[in-house]
Specification:
Number of strands: 30
Distance between the termini: 50 Å
Radius of gyration: 27 Å
CATH architecture of the largest domain: 3-Layer(aba) Sandwich
Low-confidence stretches: 738-743
Number of domains: 3
Largest sheet: 10 strands, mixed
Strand content: 15-25%
Shape: globular
CATH class of the largest domain: Alpha Beta
Strand order of the largest sheet: 7-6-5-4-8-1-9-10-2-11
CATH superfamily of the largest domain: Alkaline Phosphatase, subunit A
Number of helices: 14
Helix content: 10-25%
Structural class: alpha+beta
Length: about 750
C-alpha cells in the first residue's frame, strides 16, 4: 500500500543507465497495532446477557467479559441508526446528521439520514492507515431510498471506508430469507438447507478475515459485525426455542426479580439499587389468561433462543481467530445499540408488521393455534413489552426513551494483549461516541484533520482507555445530552435530568425528572422537587448542548417523517417503468400507501406459463400479482389479512393485465383486475398499509422473498415473456393526520 501524495524521490533520465528508481514508503499502521472486532447487537437490553445477570445462555459473550471488562455505566442513543453513526464516527448523532433512522431526512442539519463526510467513519480513518476494513450485517446508515441498484452509493459501506461488505442495508430483514447485499450489489440468498442469516453472516466474516490473514498476516483488520439479533423479526431454529421450554412460564415479573437479585449478587449493579415499579402499561402476569401466558412465554423463548444462537455463531468467529493466531492481539468491542424494545405493546405480535401498521394482535385462539410457528419462517414476531422491561432490568422504560432503559446498555471490551484486569467491572460514565476515540488511542492514531480532502469536525467523544487499567479512576466524561422523538436528557457530573415527551404535546409542558445516578443506579428516586435549582441548571445546559450539536428544532413527528415533502429524484415521480428481473428496495419503490394507483404488466404467455409478475414484501405483509393455473391473482397481504382478487383463465399470446387500486377512504379502497383493459375481478380492501408495506421492496418477474401470498412458494418466476411493468400513482394521496405513537 503506497501513497500518491509523496513527491517522487528518484531520478528519471533518458535511459535506465542514467536514472535512479524510487518507491514511496508503504503506509503502515503503528507497530503492533491490534485488530478490531466490533460486534453490535440490536435491541438487546441491559440485563439480557448472561454476564449482565440474565438466565439466557451466552457463553461466548460471557467468555469475552471474563477475558476483558464489563461496563455498567455505558450509554447509547436509544435507537439504531443514531447509535451506529455515533459509534463509527466518535461524534454525537445529531452532529453528524443522524437524528433518528436513516429513512428520514427532514431538511434540517441534524436529521439528514446520512453521516456527513465531515465525520469520517473508523473505516475511513483506519483504511488509509494500513488496515483492512470489513463490514458484515446490518448497515442502516444510508438513506433507504438510495439503496436501489442505481444508488447513489456514497453512503453505502464501501463508500464509507470499508473494503468489503456483506449484509442488509435496511433496519430489519427476514433472517430466513434476507434482503442481502454483497459489496455494492443486491444478491439472492445462498441456496443452503436450513439457511439462517446469522450463520451466513458469521461464515462471511470468517471468510474475510481468514483470506486477509492468509495473504498478509502482518496487516491488521477492522471487522464491523452487526447482527439483526434481537430486533424483530425474531427468527431462530426451533431447537433453540425449545431449549427454553418452561423457563419463562413464571412471567416477566418473576424473571425481572431473578435478574435483579443476580445482578446484585455478581456486582453488575450496586447492592443498594432499587427495583422500580412496573412500567405503565405492562400487565401483571397473573392478569393474563392461561393461553395468553403460553403465547407470551413462547415469544420470550424465541428471543432467548435467538440470542443463544447468535452467541454460538459468534463463538465460531472467535475460535477461528484463535486458530489463526489473531485473537490475543484483537480488541473485541461488544455492545447493544439501545435498550430492549417496547414495540410489541402489552401482548406482543406474531407479526410485527401489524404493529407497524397500527393493527392489534390477532385473537388469542389464533395465536395459540400457531404457537409452534413462533420464531419460524412464517412468523415476524416481536415480544410483549413486559419482556422488554425484564430485558432492561433494573432500569425504567425502553428503546426510544431517554430514561436508562433506552440508553444504558451492556458493553464488553476484551483485549488479551492490552487489558490485564480481566473479568473486572468498570463503572465510569461513558457514551457510544467514546468508542472510536478509545480505539484510535489503543491503536496509536490521532483523529485526522482531513479525510479524502474533507476537513473533519472535531471528535466529540472521550477516550475510555484510561479505564482499562484503573477501576477507580474518575470518569473523563464531562457531560452528555440525549434526544429522541422529543424525549430528552442531560447528564453532568453524576446528575441526570430527563423527560419523557408525549407526542403532540407542547414541549414546554414536559415534566422533567432529576436523578443522582451516582447514588441511584436505576433512576428510582426523582429529586426534581427537592433540587429545583439543580434541575433548572441541567435543563438550561441541555438547551445549550442542543444548540451546539444540531439537535434543534425539536421534532416529535414519527409517521409524518415518511412524508416530508423533500426532493425525491427516484421516488418523487408518478410513473415508474420496471423490467423483468428488476428488484427495487423498499424506500426506493413508489409509495403505494393511501393513494390510488395502477400496476400494468405487458406480457406474452403460452398455455401453462405461470409465475410472479410483481411482488412486494414477504410472508408478513405486502402484495403479490401472479398467474397461477392460467388465472391472474392479486393477493394483498395486510399483515395477514388477505384480500384476493382472481380472474378466469387468461388468453394465450400477448396480453396486458392491470391491478388497479381505487382509494375510497382513509387507508381503504377497492382492488380491481383488468385484462386487456376490461375489468375481470375485484375485491374490497377495507384496511390497507398506512405506515410501511415492508422492508422488502418490489421484484419484477419473480418473488424476492417468501411470498406475501400463501398460494405460492419460492421465487415462482414467470415462465412467459414479461415486457415491462408500469406503475402509475394518482394524485389523491391522503397524508397522515396523526402521530404513530411508538411508546
Amino acid at each position: 500500500m503506497t501513497s500518491d501524495a509523496q513527491t517522487y524521490g528518484g531520478i528519471v533520465g533518458n535511459t535506465v543507465a542514467d536514472s535512479t528508481p524510487w518507491w514511496p514508503d508503504p503506509v503502515a499502521p503503528p507497530p503492533n497495532s491490534p485488530n478490531v472486532v466490533m460486534v453490535v447487537l440490536d435491541d438487546v437490553g441491559f440485563a439480557d446477557l448472561g454476564c449482565f445477570g440474565s438466565e439466557i445462555e451466552t457463553p461466548t459473550m460471557n467468555a469475552l467479559a471474563a477475558n476483558g471488562l464489563r461496563y455498567n455505566n455505558f450509554h447509547t442513543t436509544s435507537i439504531c441508526s443514531p447509535t451506529r453513526a455515533s459509534l463509527l464516527t466518535g461524534r454525537n448523532h445529531h452532529s453528524v446528521g443522524m437524528a433518528v433512522v436513516s429513512n428520514w431526512d427532514t431538511g434540517y442539519p441534524g436529521c439528514t439520514g446520512r453521516i456527513t463526510n465531515r465525520a469520517a467513519t473508523l473505516a475511513e480513518i483506519l483504511r488509509p492507515a494500513g488496515y483492512s476494513t470489513f463490514a458484515v450485517g446490518k448497515w442502516h446508515l444510508a438513506p433507504i431510498e438510495d439503496t436501489t441498484p442505481a444508488g447513489p452509493f456514497d453512503q453505502w459501506p464501501l463508500q464509507r471506508g470499508f473494503d468489503r461488505y456483506y449484509g442488509f442495508l435496511d433496519g430489519a430483514t427476514n433472517h430466513w430469507d434476507p434482503d442481502l447485499v454483497a459489496d455494492n450489489h443486491h444478491i439472492d440468498r445462498p441456496e443452503k438447507p436450513d439457511y439462517h442469516a446469522t450463520e451466513d453472516l458469521v461464515d462471511q466474516a470468517i471468510a474475510m478475515v481468514t483470506a486477509q490473514t492468509s495473504a498478509w498476516p502482518e496487516r491488521p483488520f477492522f471487522m464491523y459485525l452487526c447482527f439483526g439479533t434481537g430486533h424483530y423479526p425474531i427468527h431462530v431454529p426451533k431447537p433453540y426455542v425449545d431449549r427454553y421450554n418452561g423457563r419463562y412460564d413464571a412471567g416477566w415479573g418473576t424473571i425481572r426479580e431473578e435478574r435483579y437479585h443476580r445482578q446484585k449478587d455478581n456486582g453488575v449493579i450496586p447492592a443498594d439499587t432499587e427495583l422500580p415499579p412496573f412500567n405503565p402499561g405492562v400487565p401483571d402476569w397473573s392478569d393474563l389468561s392461561a393461553d395468553e401466558q403460553k403465547v407470551a412465554a413462547r415469544m420470550q423463548q424465541a428471543y432467548a433462543g435467538m440470542l443463544t444462537h447468535t452467541d454460538e455463531h459468534l463463538g465460531r468467529l472467535i475460535a477461528t481467530l484463535e486458530e489463526i493466531g489473531q485473537a490475543d492481539n484483537t480488541v473485541f468491542v461488544l455492545l447493544s445499540d439501545n435498550g430492549a424494545t417496547q414495540e410489541g405493546g402489552p401482548s406482543g405480535h406474531e407479526n410485527a408488521m401489524r404493529y407497524v401498521n397500527g393493527l392489534g394482535p390477532r385473537p388469542i385462539d389464533q395465536q395459540l393455534g400457531n404457537i409452534d410457528d413462533i420464531g419460524g419462517p412464517g412468523n415476524w414476531m416481536v415480544y410483549p413489552m413486559g419482556w422488554a422491561m425484564a430485558g432492561n432490568t433494573p432500569l425504567k422504560w425502553y428503546k426510544q426513551n431517554t430514561h436508562a432503559g433506552g440508553v444504558r446498555d451492556p458493553l464488553i471490551i476484551s483485549w488479551t494483549a492490552g487489558i490485564a484486569d480481566r473479568g473486572a467491572l468498570r463503572t465510569q460514565y461513558h457514551h457510544v461516541s467514546d468508542i472510536a476515540p478509545t480505539l484510535l488511542e489503543a491503536i496509536g492514531l490521532e483523529p485526522p484533520a482531513e479525510v479524502a480532502g474533507v476537513h473533519q469536525m472535531p471528535m466529540e467523544g472521550t477516550s475510555m482507555m484510561y479505564s482499562f487499567a484503573d477501576a477507580d479512576a474518575p470518569t473523563n466524561k464531562a457531560e452528555q445530552y440525549y434526544e429522541m422523538f422529543g424525549h430528552r436528557a442531560m447528564w453532568v457530573d453524576g446528575w441526570k435530568a430527563v423527560t419523557r415527551h408525549i407526542p403532540g404535546e407542547n414541549f414546554d409542558d414536559d415534566r422533567w425528572e432529576l436523578y443522582h445516578l451516582d447514588q441511584d443506579f436505576s433512576e428510582a428516586r426523582d429529586l426534581a422537587q427537592a433540587e429545583p435549582e439543580r434541575l433548572a441548571g441541567l435543563v438550561d445546559r441541555w438547551w445549550e448542548a442542543a444548540r451546539a450539536y444540531q439537535v434543534l428544532p425539536l421534532d416529535d413527528r414519527i409517521l409524518e417523517r415518511f412524508h416530508v415533502p423533500k426532493p425525491r429524484p427516484i421516488t418523487g415521480r408518478s410513473r415508474f417503468v420496471y423490467y423483468d428481473g428488476a428488484y427495487i428496495p423498499s424506500d426506493g419503490c413508489p409509495d403505494l400507501k393511501n393513494v390510488s394507483y395502477e400496476i400494468t404488466v405487458e406480457l406474452s404467455r403460452a398455455d401453462g406459463d405461470d409465475g410472479t409478475l410483481v411482488a412486494c414484501g414477504d410472508v408478513a405483509s405486502g402484495f403479490a400479482l401472479f398467474i397461477q393455473d392460467g388465472r391472474l391473482v392479486w393477493d394483498y397481504n395486510m399483515a395477514w389479512e388477505h384480500y384476493v382478487a382472481e380472474t378466469e383463465p387468461l388468453p394465450s399470446g400477448p396480453v396486458t393485465v392491470t391491478a388497479a387500486f381505487e382509494r375510497t377512504g382513509s387507508h381503504a379502497g377497492t382492488g380491481r383486475l383488468l385484462v386487456n383493459g376490461v375489468e375481470a375481478a375485484s375485491v374490497d380492501m377495507p384496511v390497507t398499509h398506512n405506515t410501511h408495506i415492508h422492508a422488502v421492496g418490489i421484484s419484477v418477474g419473480f418473488t424476492k422473498a417468501p411470498s406475501p401470498s400463501p398460494r405460492t412458494t419460492g421465487q415462482f418466476p414467470f415462465t412467459g415473456t414479461l415486457s415491462r411493468v408500469v406503475i402509475e400513482v394518482a394524485d389523491d394521496r391522503e397524508l397522515p393526520d396523526q402521530l404513530l405513537v411508538l411508546d
